[in-house]
Design brief:
Largest sheet: none
Mean pLDDT: 81
Structural class: mainly alpha
Low-confidence stretches: 288-299
Number of helices: 12
Radius of gyration: 20 Å
Distance between the termini: 39 Å
């Protein structure tokens, strides 16, 4: 949990930096390429292939390509249609995607309690940002939902790989970022626009921060933290970036949120995490214990 909270704070700055200084000014594919190239460079010294099956390595690369490569390409495009607050609003479905995809991948039945607690977090985030929506919201909505699904698949895929095909986290992430980078390289040759490269030191500095800080360290901490919590908690934590991102907008760009909805929505998100950890997880653990005792022989 601490790693997820730290990463949420780290990422809170990324939304505004991209929306204000990069979107529409720097080619989105180039931004993704530089961001993932720097992140891959951070973990390059940990790249190891001995002692690991080729299938396992390819799976970690595929997860990286999905969670970061494809997700970034779609989300950077979405910024062309949305303001930063709108982008944040449209990410509120991620908790549902995380919990439902985890159940599907792990072969379990859909856990109603997990889905309901995630839905409560969705409601809280929607309360915070349900105000004016621009005319491009339909295109932006579809793009962000596609990015959310890719992000959820990547999170859940990494968590499941660590459960079924574990390897040292730093080694796993070296392959994870390599897969994401290869995706970005292919996209650059197909759709990149060399006429829209960064023109200011500030833009280059933001790309440097996004690559090394937000991506290189941020996604490592997030995915590492994801392996330490259940799928329901992971899903709920995906929505804490909404109030965090809005607070950054307030602190740096003086964009005032609608305080009543902000306070109510943040309280609902917090309550969803409390409900999940206080009621949903203990009840599920109790059911598992009951099944274990029922199956045990009489003493």
């Amino acid at each position: 949990m601490p790693l997820l909270i730290i990463t949420t704070i780290l990422w809170a700055f990324s939304f505004s930096l991209i929306g204000v200084y990069l979107a529409g000014q720097v080619d989105s594919v180039f931004s993704v390429l530089v961001r993932l190239g720097l992140a891959a460079l951070v973990f390059l010294p940990f790249l190891r292939w001995k002692g690991h099956q080729l299938t396992t390595i390819l799976l970690y690369m595929a997860v990286g390509a999905m969670q970061l490569g494809i997700m970034y390409l779609i989300s950077f495009e979405a910024y062309l249609y949305l303001s930063v607050p709108e982008f944040l609003l449209f990410t509120v479905m991620t908790p549902l995607y995380v919990t439902l995809i985890y159940d599907l991948i792990s072969g379990r039945k859909i856990r109603i309690g997990y889905a309901l607690s995630a839905l409560l977090a969705v409601a809280g985030a929607a309360i915070i940002r349900y105000d004016h929506i621009s005319e491009h919201f339909i295109i932006g909505l579809l793009l962000v939902q596609a990015a959310n699904i890719c992000f959820a698949i990547g999170q859940v895929g990494y968590k499941r790989l660590m459960e079924t095909r574990p390897m040292p986290q730093h080694t796993a992430f070296s392959w994870f970022y390599l897969g994401a980078l290869l995706c970005a390289v292919v996209a650059w040759f197909l759709w990149g626009n060399p006429q829209k490269l960064p023109t200011t030191n500030l833009q280059w500095g933001i790309l440097l921060w996004l690559g090394i800080g937000a991506s290189g360290l941020g996604y490592f901490m997030w995915n590492y933290g994801a392996t330490q919590v259940d799928a329901g908690t992971l899903g709920i934590m995906n929505n804490f970036h909404v109030p965090a991102g809005l607070l950054v907008n307030l602190a740096i760009w003086q964009q005032q949120p609608h305080w009543p909805s902000f306070i109510i929505g943040a309280a609902v998100i917090m309550s969803s995490l409390w409900v999940h950890r206080r009621w949903v997880v203990p009840r599920r653990e109790q059911k598992a214990d009951d099944r274990t005792h029922a199956a045990a022989p009489n003493e």
